[in-house]
Amino acid sequence: MKTKAELPEYPVATTVSLIGSKWKLLILRNLLHRPWRFNELKKDLDGISQKVLTDSLRSMEEDGIITRTVYPEVPPRVEYALSELGESMRSIIKSMEDFGLNYKAQTEKEE
Q: Cβ contacts of residue 53 below 8 Å, gap of 6+?
């Protein structure tokens, strides 16, 4: 997790710094439904590179938003899931989804 000194002064800026990238939001969207494996995420997130996915997952894990579970199997199985802190973002993502749907509906009315 980031230290208090590393975080922006404003709460909204703090949230944006944690989940503000396109890919982090899409990763969160997927993890809201169930745990995912790395390759599943890579296949589902069209256009994401392996490096960006790896970096995003590591960053989100370090920030306490997701958990990474390694199962002692051969071959090893790794799953990513929302942590308790990540679960608390469910309402934020839902509000963003609602806004997007409303915005699209408004755009369609104008056409």
A: 23, 27, 38, 41, 42, 45
- 82: β partners: 66
Could you give the angle at the alpha carbon of 48 between the alpha carbons of 37 and 60, nearest 5°?
60
Contact 27, 45 (CB under 8 A): yes
The two three-digit tokens of residue 90, written as one number: 């469910």
Question: Shortest CA distance to 28 belongs to which of 49, 12, 44?
Answer: 44
Tens of pLDDT, residue by residue over 42-56, are: 999 999 999 999 999
Mean pLDDT of 31-44: 97
Q: What is the pLDDT of residue 88?
A: 94
Paired strand residues for 88: none
How far apart, in whole angstroms, are the C-alpha atoms of residue 74 and residue 4?
40
